[in-house]
Amino acid sequence: MTALPATHLFAGPEHQAFALPGTTPFVLAIHGFMGTPAELRPLAHSLADLGAAVTAPLLPGFGNEVQRLSTVTAKEWLDCALQSWQQVRARSNGAAVLLGFSMGAAIAVQIAALAPPERLVLIAPFTRLLPGDWRVPFLPLARRVVKELRPFANADFGNPSTRKVFEAMNPALDLDDPTVQAALREVRLPLSALDELRKTGQGALRAARHVRCPVLVIQGFDDRTVPPWTTRRLVERFAGRVTLIEVPGDHQLVRLDHPSAELAFRLIGQYVTGGLA
């Protein structure tokens, strides 16, 4: 059986960094953990339709670089996004908006503390890895012993939710092909990457108290990846004005088939263009 390289999951051009032309405002959009700019394209196009110029970088160790994820650090994610942000700000004449989804939101909070945007948009902002799980504090030690996990080893490829996850990565994958299924079960996730993800969330919690720009937060009621209570705790830390809007649905608020996508996209569009206080 021929092995399917992990990079094949992200082979399409939609997973690459992109920049949609526009006039104002200028928006930097940062994707989530194990995601790529592809997950932000629907939202980015909705903002571009309103006149915004939207840039989305590909963070190190994701997409076609996923095979080097085991060597990437939280600092590299932050540095990459910060460099993109500085370029966007330089072109914006002050009308620059920072937007992040999930882990991207945690990175955006840290950037906002260092180089404040005009406005900050956080979608399902990640801050805590597996909240309440007793194993999380042992990650710095465990990563030295257990090098990797197989997150899809027991995946049910007949489950609609599971299929949506892989279709988002690569719609061209034939999930009914036993060869593809076997290869996906062999995909490895470095434990070190989870520890760097944990550090990224902690960095956001520390940075939040230094964020004074207006903030819009969109959070799903049924989010199990980023439970609503963790987002409420984050919101309490901000120094400036925060608008928290909780909507029906799970973590994937940026997907077009999410039950609250239309509402979330409209609210974000209004906020980014100055129509929502």
UniProtKB/TrEMBL annotation:
**Do you know which InterPro entries this protein is assigned to?**
AB_hydrolase_1, AB_hydrolase_fold, AB_hydrolase_sf, Hydrolase_4
MF terms from GO for this chain are: hydrolase activity
Q: GO cellular component terms?
A: membrane
Q: Which Pfam families match?
A: Hydrolase_4
Arranged from A to Z, the UniProt key words for this protein are: Hydrolase
Keyword Hydrolase attached? yes
Question: Where in the numbering of this chain does the Serine aminopeptidase S33 domain appear?
Answer: 27-244
What is this protein called in UniProt?
Alpha/beta fold hydrolase
